[in-house]
Design a protein that fits this description.
By secondary structure, the protein is mainly alpha-helical. The chain contains 8 helices and no strands. It has one domain. The protein starts with a helix and ends with a helix.
Length: about 180
């Protein structure tokens, strides 16, 4: 992906999340609190993450266990499918964590694609590194997502403050993305 596309995608994601948190109505709170244990969200996010990971495994070269890629694909496909039966709790959170980690590589690679890389890329990289840290933390202990969401909606000002921060960062990334469009 180009630096323009990945930065604009991050901006849109932050603006949408920020707008929902700024509104912070009962439907947003109800949806957020139901998300960690949602079966539909688990199928969508964990399923997408598993399929993407299996696709990456299927393209391994000889230096990366490529001689065993069929076995690896089968084993990880069984593990991914088994997760829906064995550890359904917080599978949606794990799915978002997996997708975040899978998106991080192309996002960071796109910021280094230009020589010299634009100095403003640190805004995108900072967002990606924070997302990586959150993904590792919540992927390892997904029940913290439930606690974090409960804490966030205990007071509406918390959700709105986070929403305002997301909108502000999203605007910064959108402005930077418009500047990157000229690099192409």
């Amino acid at each position: 992906m180009s630096l323009f596309a990945i930065t604009l995608s991050a901006a849109i994601l932050l603006l949408a999340l920020g707008a929902a948190l700024l509104w912070s109505g009962t439907p947003v709170e109800r949806t957020a609190k139901a998300f960690p244990r949602s079966t539909v969200a688990a199928v969508v996010f964990f399923g997408a993450g598993a399929l993407w990971f299996l696709r990456l495994l299927s393209q391994l070269g000889p230096a990366d266990f490529g001689d065993y890629r069929q076995i690896l694909v089968l084993v990880f496909a069984a593990v991914g499918l088994g997760a829906f039966f064995v550890s359904r709790d917080f599978l949606a959170v794990r799915g978002v964590a997996v997708l975040t980690l899978l998106v991080a590589h192309p996002a960071l690679a796109s910021s280094m694609a230009y020589t010299p890389p634009p100095p403003s890329r640190v805004w995108l990289n900072g967002f990606v590194y924070v997302a990586i840290a959150l993904a590792i933390w919540l992927g390892a202990a997904p029940y913290h997502a439930r606690d974090l969401i409960a804490w966030l909606f205990t007071r509406r000002t918390r959700a709105r403050t986070l929403g305002a921060a997301c909108v502000a960062y999203g605007i910064v990334l959108a402005v930077l993305a418009s500047n990157y469009h000229t690099l192409q």
